Amino acid sequence: MRPSIVLVAIGEIKGNLLERLREELSVIFYPLLVEISGTLSIPKEAYNFSRKQYKSSHFLEALKIYATDKNSKILGITPVDLYTKGLNFIFGQATLEDNVCVISIHRLKPEFYEQAKNEKIFIERCTKEAVHELGHTFFLNHCPNPQCVMHFSNHILDTDRKSKNFCEKCQSKITEKIKSLEV
Asked: Does the pTM exceed 0.90?
């Protein structure tokens, strides 16, 4: 089976975001096949009423049903606000052992920050966070280079400042990891 990245909506993703991400990720992670596959319901048990957010671990667990091939990476995309223990919110999270990751588009929209709707900025932010979380599934750690997509985003300005691409050092690691997947 050809190594791939599988995009899975968790909840309703409006517009052409999944297709745009598929196009962007196909270039960045070439020669991996990037495909869109299915929709999952938002895990009800993930909702924390006091926080008015969803715990990300439930989303990662739900995505495991797509992780049937050790050479495939699964990326969930959800419109709801995510958090994990110890953090007020997260843009995304990954698990290394299961090849699954999730991003939340909730705080990536300019409107969340009371700015005008801007599709270009929104797609760029989604792409950066998707690449970042997929990078973790290839065992990449956070990078100290603030321009590298693997740099940790503590807030949206960090996401805006970094590139959607890997720095030279991280790109070398990703290229090696992708080659090891090729059959």
From this structure: yes
